[in-house]
Write a structure and sequence with these properties.
seven-stranded parallel β-sheet, single chain, 16 helices, 2 domains, Rossmann fold, 419 residues, 35% helix, five-stranded mixed β-sheet
Length: 419
């Protein structure tokens, strides 16, 4: 273990190369990591950090723990919030070297409330984290950044796995549950003031709805989606946002239900007013960094009984299908009584293919996609909707798995036929 003052941090910086810095849209700095992720938001890292600190419950009597130093945004935000003490642990020398280049590094490390700890060996680092969570930090705010566990796993794999476990179990801080109170209030205010996204009322009436998945078929559909955008409502899964917004197509709603996070740090500024519908368990960095309204739903489905919840919410989403397309289709079916059209739902039909927007599945950490399971479960849900009289087809070319489903009534596979 090494406790770093400003001089020691600068010595680390001389021995390790900093990560390449890049300017964000609001004029701050972020950096791109070897895996291709950005360490902080490409839009406004300061706002992102302050929101995370607020949601973690950092206040005048708190002693937050930061897993990963980042570029210091969260640390400075903790001090701004009046934290009594702040402990930062980091094992990546390159990250520390990059922090040393920040203009606020000196002031940060001269603050007597701040302790910056650097570990090089996995065993010592794991031992430190164990002591911290069994001791004074057991009930204190916890913050990190979504790339940190993957960034650490090459140097301290046991510690990285421990951090992942901590983040999945914590009842405060960066783990999901802490932000539920915040989101409950956001939900209440949004649902009270907006009739546009009330899943109980079918606010989209009988408008056609396109559900955009992140399969490569979405790339083929983008020109037609753009041309006919005013003719339908659009629900996007989180991984389809980047290609949609890149083509100038703004969805009406984004749905996220799991930890997969393709676009976390590159969330475009154009999504500022876009509502996010999410369920507990969604990647918390994605949820807490979302710039627009966030609306909580609860999952139902095989092995997923609905949990009790006291806050205002739009209801439940069918889950357990192995793909976010299922809950997104369920949201669309609740919002509108019109035709439901699917785009980008290739679901591995042609083997190892790219996601839309040329994001390779192999590049997404820890993703193990069982496409056969997805096709079977989603196909069952499509059939259930059709048996209820709903028209569910494809926008553009029908993928094989959808075309092979038995349809109890004529099925439209194009916008013109749906109108």
């Amino acid at each position: 273990m090494q406790r770093l003052d400003l001089g020691a941090l600068r010595r680390v910086a001389r021995e390790a190369d900093a990560y390449p810095l890049l300017s964000t849209r609001e004029g701050a700095q972020s950096c791109r990591l070897p895996q291709g992720q950005l360490l902080h938001s490409a839009y406004d890292p300061w706002s992102e950090a302050r929101r995370q600190v607020r949601e973690a419950g950092v206040g005048p009597s708190s002693r937050p723990l930061l897993l990963g130093a980042g570029l210091g945004y969260q640390a400075v935000a903790c001090l701004e919030a009046g934290a009594k003490a702040l402990r930062i642990v980091e094992c990546d020398a390159r990250c520390l070297s990059t922090l040393a280049a920040m203009p606020w590094a000196g002031e940060l490390l001269r603050d007597p409330r701040v302790e910056l700890l650097h570990f090089k060996d996995d065993a010592g680092f794991t031992s430190l984290l164990t002591r911290l969570f069994e001791g004074e930090h057991g009930s204190q705010p916890l913050l990190t950044l979504s790339p940190v566990p993957r960034l650490w796993e090459g140097r301290a794999p046991r510690a990285a796995n421990m951090v992942r476990d901590i983040l999945s179990r914590r009842l405060n801080g960066y783990a999901q549950e802490a932000s539920l109170d915040w989101n409950r209030e956001q939900n209440r205010r949004f649902l009270e003031t907006s009739a546009e996204l009330n899943l109980y009322s079918g606010a989209w009436r009988n408008r056609p709805v396109v559900v955009a998945g992140a399969g490569p078929g979405l790339d083929r559909d983008l020109p037609e989606l753009l041309r006919t955008r005013e003719e339908f409502r659009l629900v996007a899964v989180n991984a389809s946002l980047a290609p949609l917004l890149g083509a100038g197509i703004v969805p009406d709603l984004c749905v996220a239900v799991d930890g997969m996070n393709v676009i976390q740090a590159d969330l475009p500024v154009r999504a500022v007013d876009l509502p996010l519908l999410w369920i507990p368990g969604t990647n918390h960095g994605f949820v807490s960094g979302w710039p627009g309204p966030r609306i909580l739903a609860l999952p139902v489905g095989p092995g997923l009984p609905p949990a009790a919840w006291e806050g205002a919410m739009p209801g439940f989403l069918q889950s357990g299908m192995g793909t976010v397309i299922g809950p997104a289709l369920d949201a669309a079916s609740q919002l509108s009584g019109g035709p439901l059209l699917l785009s980008g739902v290739d679901l591995g039909s042609a083997g190892e293919r790219l996601y839309a927007g040329r994001v390779r599945r192999q590049a997404v950490a820890s993703v193990r996609s069982d496409f056969a399971y997805m096709r079977r479960q989603l196909g069952t849900f499509v059939q259930e909707l059709r048996m209820k009289g709903r028209r569910v087809g494809a926008f553009g070319d029908c993928p094989d798995w959808l075309a092979e489903l038995h349809s109890p009534r004529p099925l439209s596979c194009s916008m013109e036929e749906s109108a």
